[in-house]
Structures are given as structure tokens and as C-alpha cells.
């Protein structure tokens, strides 16, 4: 995958996640996403800070860590155990492969509110399903129901 395509793919995944959550897209978060899309293999906050500097962007450590955990929640990056032999225990990340991506979205049938949800064990189960003449590479599940607000209105 070339860099442009990769950046577009990551941005699309991020937009989908934002649409399904209560999070906001901010210039800082988008810059971190760009820095992430430039990484090859495993990376840590040092590599990201350098990439951000080359984009003329400076973000706080807290913003960097918060955004990384958000990107992890979105399935865009995966946290990897540090394999640094120097005893450095700094956290490392890696861009998660498109393959094996699992997304769950809860959709309210009354107000249309959407939010992202997670169910790693169900996700793994669905990914392991085999279908004739079809290779499963990802799972997108839409679960319909009532959000807490609409449910409250209904019971009154
Ligand atoms: Zn609702």
C-alpha cells in the first residue's frame, strides 16, 4: 500500500470511528494520525514526536497518549509489547492491519444515534467463520436497539 492510500485509509477509519462515538476530530488528533500513517513497523512516542515536528506540529505528551489510546480503541493502531533489549519499557504501537479489523456499531432505531462498541471475543469468533468461496478479512456489525435516552422516554 503506498503512503497516500494508507493515509486515506487511516483517515477514513478515523472518521468512521468519530461518527460512531462522542469524540471530536481536532487538528492535533488529525496531525497525530498523519504522523502515525508515516510510521513503518513499530513506533513509540519519540518517533511520533519527530514526525510531528517535521509536520511543524507540537502536541503535549498527554494529547499524544490520549490520541493513541483513542486510535487503539478505533482499531487503527495496536499496542505492541516493547522488544527493546535495553530494558526500555516504553510502549510501542503499530498500525493495525486492515485485515482482521472488527467494528461494532450500536444504532438507536428511534433517534439514529450511533456509537462504537467493542466485543473482542465475538469479533474473533466472527472472523474465524469460513464461508464457501469467500475469505473473511474483516467484520462490520451493526446492532440496532434503543439508546439510553430513548429508552428512558419510552418507560415514562
Ligand atoms: Zn435514541
How would the blueprint of this fold be written?
Layout: H1 3-19, H2 27-37, H3 45-54, H4 61-73, E1 77-80, E2 92-95, E3 101-108, E4 114-117, H5 120-128, E5 138-145, H6 148-155
Parallel strand pairs: 3-5
Antiparallel strand pairs: 1-2, 3-4
Helix pairs in contact: 1-2, 2-3, 2-4
Account of the 3D structure:
The structure is a single chain. This protein has about 160 residues and is an alpha+beta fold. It folds into 2 domains: about 5-95, Arc Repressor Mutant, subunit A (Orthogonal Bundle), CATH 1.10.10; about 100-155, Ferric-uptake regulator, C-terminal dimerisarion domain (Dna Ligase, domain 1, 2-Layer Sandwich). It has helices at about 5-20, 25-35, 45-55, 60-75, 120-130, 150-155, and strands at about 75-80, 90-95, 100-110, 115, 140-145. The strands form 2 sheets. A 3-stranded mixed sheet has the order 4-3-5, covered by helices on one side. A hairpin with a 5-residue loop joins strand 3 and strand 4 (about 115). Helix 1 (about 5-20) packs antiparallel against helix 2 (about 25-35), helix 2 packs across helix 3 and helix 2 packs across helix 4. Bound molecules: zinc ion.
Amino acid at each position: 500500500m503506498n503512503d497516500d492510500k494508507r493515509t486515506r485509509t487511516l483517515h477514513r477509519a478515523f472518521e468512521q470511528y468519530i461518527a460512531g462515538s462522542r469524540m471530536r476530530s481536532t487538528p492535533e488528533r488529525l496531525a497525530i494520525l498523519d504522523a502515525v500513517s508515516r510510521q513503518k513497523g513499530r513506533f513509540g512516542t519519540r518517533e511520533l514526536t519527530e514526525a510531528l515536528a517535521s509536520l511543524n506540529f507540537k502536541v503535549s505528551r498527554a494529547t499524544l497518549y490520549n490520541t493513541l489510546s483513542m486510535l487503539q480503541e478505533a482499531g487503527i493502531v495496536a499496542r505492541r509489547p516493547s522488544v527493546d533489549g535495553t530494558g526500555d519499557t516504553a510502549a510501542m504501537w503499530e498500525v493495525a492491519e486492515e485485515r482482521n479489523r472488527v467494528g461494532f456499531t450500536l444504532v438507536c432505531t428511534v433517534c439514529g444515534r450511533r456509537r462504537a462498541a467493542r466485543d473482542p471475543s465475538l469479533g474473533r469468533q466472527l472472523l474465524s467463520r469460513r464461508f464457501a468461496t469467500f475469505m473473511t478479512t474483516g467484520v462490520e456489525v451493526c446492532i440496532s436497539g434503543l439508546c439510553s435516552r430513548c429508552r428512558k422516554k419510552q418507560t415514562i
